[in-house]
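Ticket #4471: structure output looks truncated?

Reporter: J.K.
Steps to reproduce: submitted the chain below (118 residues) through the standard prediction queue, then opened the result file.
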Amino acid sequence: CLTCFFFPAIASAQLAPGLKAHAYDLSVAAIDAIKAAVTSILINPESARFAAIIASENEKTDQITVCGYVNAKNSSGRYAGNQPFKGVLKGKRFVITKPLGSSMTIIRCIYHGVPLLF
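Returned output as attached by the reporter:
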């Protein structure tokens, strides 16, 4: 049971110690950069369907953490289901910091102030 694994971990997830983060509104250009970076690592980039792209800004460091979900076709030609991703927006560039679908991605998003849920 995949959700059985996630729920206890999410329940215990908390913000990084001392983190003061607030929601960050992404521009159209930022969303385009995020989608371009994520699709660049997909097996079938033209099949990408994005859901929930959310960002937060760390008030101390001004770092913008972005998390979201992407669903794309895998090597079998089937949609793999929503896979979480996490990264940092650096100017006009998005750098992925967690691999797609990593079981810890959602927890790391919450830890960095991005309320990414299922």
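Triage note (M.O.): checked the attachment and the full token line is present. Residues 1-13 have pLDDT under 50 and may be disordered.
Status: closed, working as intended.
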